[in-house]
Amino acid sequence: MANLTILRTYALKDPANISPSVLFRSSEKFLTIFDAYPKSIFHFLVLPRLTKDEGGFSEGDTANLKALLKADKQKAKELIESMKAEALEVKKEMEEEMVERYGYKWDSWVGFHAVPSMVHLHLHVLAADLVSERMKNKKHYNSFHPSLGFFLHVDEVLSWFDADTTYFNRMAQLTPKPYEDLLKRDLECWCCRAGMKNIPKLKEHLQEEWDKHAVKAKRAAQKRKATSDGDCLSVPQVYEGSASKRAKTAEPEPVE
Questions:
Q1: Which domain range does residue 127 map to?
Q2: What stretch or stretches form a coiled coil here (predicted)?
């Protein structure tokens, strides 16, 4: 049970007391940590901090996205907007590391899981590759598939606030069953939509796709040109951060 609440533990801590093997960066309102079980080369979690002067959100309100959406609507929107802004700063650092390590950068995704497995609101920031040794099963993969529906892109969630009240209330329910059913869907490549029989075949296919585009991406980067929007890029290893920022993860936790 402790592992399921580890994010809440971090949110309550002074960042100075969090291991550098866990903490990527912090600000007055947020922590960004390395996902202990990354599903892409780069994978981070942005968490709202819980401090005495938080002024507005209880631990219950920040248990997960569903709980937040039941709280004060305007404050919930402002928090999600602030989390997005923090995530975009993380994305900038991530892209710098991409270029430094691989000579080019590729897309990334920012979003929530509709039905999270861990306590405390957290926003995923991950590179758009989904090739990782930690990608073990269909549930893992489908939970991050960018168009399946379980992974809720942050801009999609923010759009609910601008819709009519009936639509917002319906989406904010985040009823688990329909979303959990999505995790049982057949495997398909998120890039080309090709169906796959199992995870090993899917991962092999994704690697082949990204390797094929890697040369093109590097060549384009060298010429200071952007790669095509739909390209999958080569991703040879999982990111563990620069030596100054990350040692081997000391406190693994289950991550959706």
A1: 2-185
A2: 66-100
